[in-house]
Every structure is written in structure tokens, then in C-alpha cells.
């Protein structure tokens, strides 16, 4: 069993160790919730201040040109592209993951007018499935089929996540993409739990979406992104046809005329202040070797699994290749257990009804963090500290 | 003709004059583009810093509860409500105006399933009309009828702006709402150019939308808002049925079950950093007597019209009651004229093909500003300074 000194040695040899200093990390806490909200990069506050005070404050409406605000959906999209294995001019940033899913789904259905089935994973993060239901309800005449049936032959589109938010289980993007295409279906990947912790490659897929506030560290509610395969750029329609997707937004034409390329999927005015924090976060990603990130991610999750051992029931796949960068366990009293862990300095989160999640962000989580977190888990469980009644009461949101 | 001393006296007697000190205004410039992007409130930078460094940086994922991020769409919506004449629990903030229009339109069409006509103003700000076209294209079987036909009798919904972005002409909200309802149609008001400069009252309407980055001063790309009349809260559907609109977002149920009340129109994770700037801007609006704002707005626009006189062809209504807080003129060489004005310290904007716009934000525009701006307009036109070839070349975006 690796002891703390061994973990200190692993940290000393970690090629990514310098990145940890680029983040603001809380004192006395092991933060294992980067899969929900990434930590604050040190550079972000100044970048946001600059946008507010120097750009908006001094240039006012001139900032749209002078500070590149207009171009943000595309320039920032181009900075995200390498993180998901696609090229420039293929990603547009903005809005939210839910809205990007709606755009991708609506476009996919129009591209497959002869089919009336949407395959969606009922175990996917709920918003994905809810958006499918909302669109199907609006259009009528669509069947929403659960992924579990594994039948794509009459499907217009398949929507699923590369990494499951609850279990951390990882799909084989290449294989499932090929399977969907062989059946004549289009495919949309949700990358919320994979981008930033592994080498993602959705270049064969039709669409992909993701958020930037988890492993990408762009801040609470940071803009999402939408990838559209270039083979669809001339034919796919953006149902949220706002003026930023128009061929000439400032011609103020009466009729919508889609822009060339990915810009037709822009909707409207970008959230500039939130974009500033995203742009700052991407400064870090430019320097990150993703193969090292994935290697460290697997090592961190494996170490945690090894150290926790049988103290908790593992829900995530045991094979590190088959999971993302989180480890989930099942516990019938998961809620008080997680509250006790947080009270003892280990921040994970709880997902109803009985899942404990621990996310490992390779840029700022150390091997020693993993050691200390596992030790606390063993102590809280071994001494049944979670049975203290103060942990039983539900907080408003967990 | 009022001279500069008279304008100084008007400023001294202005009951709103103290508000000017709450904004960062550029040196040596008269900024008349508050109808496009409002000026930076002095309090905003610290409010945004707090959200980034103290909330996100220190509380991390705990900020969702501890800093009220989850509730932002509703708490901030409640702060916007008084500005548009409606009550608490009726406005949700977030996303963009275009997206809010899409939500309102889709909901309205579902509420009027027996009708197949959308009335939209072809002269409205293009994104409004484009969103109508996008939704109609997705659904098929809908006719988009121009407002100019003035025929509502078979319309499902009517969408128009209280104040026209180009001319500043103001619609009579009460009368047109009654006209639409008498014809059995629902009505959606776009308040982008009216909220913050007049006493808006859409309480009889079915839906209303607006942005917050113009007269409300919430910053570039700040979150938009959506009002839904309480009579529709139980029946209207949110087609963008993301998890924030679910009755129990953290129950992670498989099927979408809409929340009670306005929250069903929330979509997904709010753009928290952009919300911080919006929240700061609303601190000011709590103290603003809107009747005084409207009185000053009419006085400012009237003064500008009087001082500019026949030097430019007025496009806006001559009656101040019939316009918003902007004055628009037509000039065949509008582009170089506006560039010359900006070069001489008067910032308005140009809208193709030939419109010069000047917006007056009563919280920070003074009577002396109006005097000085008009004097510059007369000089630039009188001496034909705009004919200098350096003003002829088009910039990338105008």
C-alpha cells in the first residue's frame, strides 16, 4: 500500500506539478469537486478586471471591435478545438450546454428528415435527456428511445456522454460513432466530463457539446461550446437563428441568411465578462500536454481506489481505461457520509440517491491529496463519524 | 435657443444629477451610445472581483449555495420586475434576448394550437424576426405575417418592440396588447430599448423579454430576462427544458417535470460572473425614480432635436411622448458623418443604410452633454468635416 512518503515522491516526479501553482486552492482542504466546478486560475481575476475596467469601462461600445468581443464565440471556440480533437473553424463558444444540445439535436433531425427516433441515455446527465424530451414534445411525432435498447437502425440521432456524470464510466467514442454511422444515424457527444482530463477526439462525430466550468476551470456558469463537423457546415440549420449567426449581422437584413461555416451556429451577444474568465483558463490549456494529463488522471483515480479499498462499494469501472477522472462509490447513507467528509476537509459531492463522487483534476490535484483524502475516508467510515446527527439534516441544495 | 449656461442651470436643478457620479465616463467624450452598451457603474468592478475571488476562489463549488448562485435567475429576475411593471416571481434572468424570444414564442404557439400565424415586425431588430423565422422553419405550417398588415384575427402570437431600435418610435403597449387580446392572439413585448428609460408596464401582456446591457448598464453580453404572465405559469411550456426548470433539479429524475411558477422557464447553469455585473447595476436601479428618468429623457431628446434643428433630417417622432430615449437622423453619407463625429468626441452610432443614432441615458447624460454634442454636430456638418477621406473607409464592424 503506497504511503504518504511514496505519494510525496510521486508528486516530486510529476511532470504536471508546476500547474498546481497556477490555481487558488483552499487551505486545509482536499478539493475533489473539479468535475463539478474547477478551481480558480490565478490569472483569471486580472483578466476579468481588465475586461470590466479597461475594455468596458474605457472603450465602452468600442470594445466590441477593439477588444475582440464580437469575435469571441469563434476565437474562443478555436482555442477549445484542440482539447476535443478537432480543427479551427469547427467550434463556437457561448450559451450553455443545454442550449447547445438543443441546437445540435434540432439540426440533426433536420438532416435526417426520414427518421423519427432519437436515441438518448436515460442515465445521462438529466439536462441532456430533458432537452431531448422538450424538443420531441415541441415537434411531435418523435420517439425517444433509451440507449439501453442499443438499436440505432432507424434512429435520426444518438446523444450520449463520453463519461457518465454519475459513475465515471467512459464510452468508446470511436466505436459508438462508427456504430451510429453504420446504422445511418447521426451522433452528438456530450464532453462535459471528459474534456480536460483525457485526449478527446470527436472529429468523426457529427456534433459535440460541452461545458467549460468543470475540468476546464473557466468559472461558474462559464460559456459552453458546440462542435459541428465541417461536412455539415453548409447544410445544417441553426434553429436558434439569432443575429450572430447571420451572414452579415450588421447589414440588418429582414431575412435570416446563415453565415458560412461554424459561425452560423452562433446565436447572439456573447456573455463577455464570463468569456473573459474562459479565455484566461484557456491560457493554461495551451501549455498542457494532454497525454500527461490522462496518464496522471488514471494514476490518481487508481491510487484512490487502491487506498480506499473495500471500505466503500465502487460504482466506477475498476479498469482506469474504462473511466474518466472521477471515482464514484455507493453508500446507503451517502448524504451524511459526504457531509462528514466535507466537515473533515475532503470535498467530494453526493448525487441522489446514494452516490459519492470524487473528481480528480490532474492540473491541481496531487498524489499526496489523494493519500490524505483516502485516509480521511477510511477514518470517517472506520470510526463511523458520519453517524453524528449534525450530518443528517439535508441542506437546501447538495 | 438654449445656450450652454442654460444647460448648466438645468444640470444644477436635475434631481438625477447625483447618479452621474456612479458611472465611469470617458474623458473628453460625450457618450451617446447607452442605447447600445451602457456605461460601467463604479460599483461593478468590486462586485465582479468579489464573485471571482471571494465566492468562486474561496468557496469553490460551495458558492452555488453560499453565494446564492443557484437562485440568481429568480432573485435577479425579481430585481428586474419593478423596471417593467410586473411583480415578484414573474421574471427569470439568464441567457440572451434571442433565446428568451425563442422560449416565449414556442410557449405561445403551444398555448394557441388552433392558430398558425405569427405576426412579427419586419422592421424590428433583426434577431427578433430571425428567431421567428427559425422557429417557424423548424415547426413548418406557420405563416409569418408582417406587422404592417395589422391583422391579428387569426394570429397565435404577436411579437414587437416597445421602442424601435432604429427610429426610436414608441408603441402604445396597453393599446396594442388590448388589440392583440381582442383578436384572440397572445403578445410578446421586446423591451430592449425601453426598460430603463421610461415607466414600462407589460403586466397585461403574455410575455416580455429584454436585455440588460443597454440602458440597464449591466455590461457587454449581460444576461437577458423573460417575463411570463402568471396566468400562463401552470400551462405554458418551456421548450428549452433544461435541468434548472425542473421541479427538483437535484433529484436527477429521468423525466422532465416542470417547476412551479416562473422557475420552469429557467434553462440551465447561469453565467455567474456576468450575473455579478448585472446584480451590481441593479443596486443603482433600486434607488431610481423612473418618472424622473422619463421626464429627463424627454427633456434631453427634445433639447437635442431643438439644437440640431434642420441640420439633419429627423427620423424619430417629433413628439417626445412618441419616442424612446434616442434620436435618429437620416443622412446619405451617414457612415463618414458618424465617424467624423466620433473623431470629434461625440459618440453615437450608425445603422445601415443611412441612420445616425444618438442615445440619451438619463442617469449619466447631462444637459450640458447634449449642448456640446449638438454643437459638434453643427460644426461637423456646417464645415463638412466628414468629407475628409479618412472617414470614408469602412471599419470591420460599425
UniProtKB/TrEMBL annotation, chains A, B:
| Keyword Plastid recorded | no
Cofactor(s) needed for function: pyridoxal 5'-phosphate
Pfam families named among the record's database cross-references: KYNU_C
Biological pathway:
Cofactor biosynthesis; NAD(+) biosynthesis; quinolinate from L-kynurenine: step 2/3; Amino-acid degradation; L-kynurenine degradation; L-alanine and anthranilate from L-kynurenine: step 1/1
Q: Does the keyword Nucleotide-binding apply?
A: no
UniProt xrefs under InterPro entries: Kynureninase, PyrdxlP-dep_Trfase, PyrdxlP-dep_Trfase_major, PyrdxlP-dep_Trfase_small
* Residues annotated with N6-(pyridoxal phosphate)lysine modification: 214
Q: What is its EC number?
A: 3.7.1.3
**Residue positions binding pyridoxal 5'-phosphate:** 97-98, 125-128, 190, 193, 213, 243, 269
Q: Which GO terms describe its molecular function?
A: kynureninase activity; pyridoxal phosphate binding
Recorded GO cellular component terms are:
cytoplasm
The top EC class is hydrolase
| Reactions mediated catalytically | L-kynurenine + H2O = anthranilate + L-alanine + H(+); 3-hydroxy-L-kynurenine + H2O = 3-hydroxyanthranilate + L-alanine + H(+)
Q: Which UniProt keywords apply?
A: Hydrolase, Pyridine nucleotide biosynthesis, Pyridoxal phosphate
Which Gene Ontology BP terms does the record give? anthranilate metabolic process; L-kynurenine catabolic process; L-tryptophan catabolic process to kynurenine; NAD+ biosynthetic process; quinolinate biosynthetic process
Task: Please report which protein family the annotation says this sequence is part of.
Answer: Belongs to the kynureninase family.
- How is the subunit organization of this protein annotated in UniProt? Homodimer.
Q: What job does this protein perform?
A: Catalyzes the cleavage of L-kynurenine (L-Kyn) and L-3-hydroxykynurenine (L-3OHKyn) into anthranilic acid (AA) and 3-hydroxyanthranilic acid (3-OHAA), respectively.
Q: What is this protein called?
A: Kynureninase
Gene encoding it? kynU
